Structures are given as structure tokens and as C-alpha cells.
Amino acid sequence: MQIPLQITFRGIPHSDAVEARIREKVSKLDRFHSHIMSCRVAVESEHHRHHQGNQYHIRIDITTPRRELLVSREHHDKKAYEDIYVAIRDAFNVAARLLEDYARIQHGKVKTHNLQSAGTVIRVLPEKDHGFIESEDGREIYFHRNSVTGNGFDSLQPGDEIRYIEEKDDLGPQASIVYS
Q1: Where is the CSD domain (predicted)?
Q2: How far apart are CA 137 and CA 31, in angstroms?
Q3: Closest CA to 150 of 114, 177, 126, 176
Q4: In whole angstroms, what is the distance from residue 52 CA to residue 156 CA?
Q5: What are the φ and ψ backbone dihedral angles of 147, each rounded to 5 degrees?
Q6: Coil, strand, or helix at residue 80?
Q7: CA 122, CA 164: separation in Å to the nearest integer?
Q8: What is the spatial distance between Cα 174 and Cα 165, in angstroms, rounded to a whole number?
Q9: pLDDT band for position 78 (cuts 50, 70, 90)
Q10: What pTM was computed for the model?
Q11: Closest by CA position to 165, among listed 99, 105, 96, 93
Q12: Does domain 6-106 correspond to CATH entry 3.40.50.2000?
């Protein structure tokens, strides 16, 4: 990793044991993608539950040369993440799958032409490093600066016809790769 791992604790005190588990999990991510530039992990605790223990939320933000991957899992099953180590395990399992899928696409091991959709750029927000695509069926699809190939993010304008690969994210549909 070019940028050192960043671990943030919110709503809970720092724990050396939790930090060690996160460092162990991050060190294994290189098996799935060899060009990870940075990784930021946020460990958060919700203190709203009076009848159950704390609920833990793990957010992982991984940056590669061409894409930013985000894992942000909040489960509504009240007992799912009362154990911080289960929350960490599950979040890193998702991160590993995302990296593995992304590496497959980059190495051409997936026929991306079958996954591509056509759309039109409807908004580009350079100050926020993202924009939105209108899909052929009228849905709005988010994309990040790092997911744009070809001429790059700065060349995109509203009205441009593009092709993209869509994936489902916790926050809704997002274009993982945008071909400009």
C-alpha cells in the first residue's frame, strides 16, 4: 500500500485487539488485488439500544489506481453485529469479494461486453469527484471519478453517451466502470 492504513474508532474507545484484527484482515486483501493504494477503516458503535448490546458498523474504503471500493454494511438484524469481530469478519469478506471481482474484470477474465449498459451523463460534479448517469430505463446511476476510463472524468459533459458496468451498492446502483 502506498498510503498507510488508517483506522478510525467512532463512538467506542480505541482497542489494540480490534486494531490488530483489522490490520490482519487488511494484510490479506493483497491476495485479491495487488495494486491497493490505500485502505481506510472506520469502526463505529451505535448506542441506541437499551435492551441489546452495542451495534457495530464497519466501513472500509479501498483505493486502487482506477477505482475506489466502498464497503459499508449496516444490518437491521438486531443481533447480527453485537459482536465487533463478526462485523469485521463480514465486512472484510465483502471487501475481498469486491476486490476479486474487480481484478477479474481488469484482467479480462470476465466478458465485460455482456455486462455493459448504455446511458447518458446527466450530471457531473467535479468538486465532489462524482456524477450521475441516466440508464436506458430512466434510472439514475451514481459513478465516481476513479471509475471513468478512456478520456477520463474531466472530459465528461451532461448529454454524453457512455457505456458502463452497473453494480448494486448499499446506497443504490453505481457504475463500477464507465467507458467514456
Answers
A1: 116-180
A2: 37
A3: 177
A4: 48
A5: -90, -5
A6: coil
A7: 14
A8: 8
A9: very low
A10: 0.56
A11: 105
A12: no
By CB atoms closer than 10 A (0-12, 13-18, 19+), residue 111 is exposed
- Secondary structure class of 60 (helix, strand, coil): strand
Q: Cα–Cα distance between 59 and 11 in angstroms, integer? A: 14
Cell of residue 92, nine digits: 472484510
The CATH architecture that domain 112-179 belongs to is: Beta Barrel (2.40)
In the block, cell 464507465 appears at 178
Q: What are phi and psi of 88, to 5 degrees?
A: -65, -50
> Which residue from 25, 29, 80 is spatially nearest to 57, judged by alpha carbons?
80
What are the domain boundaries of the chain?
6-106, 112-179
Q: Which residues pair with 124 in a beta bridge?
A: 131
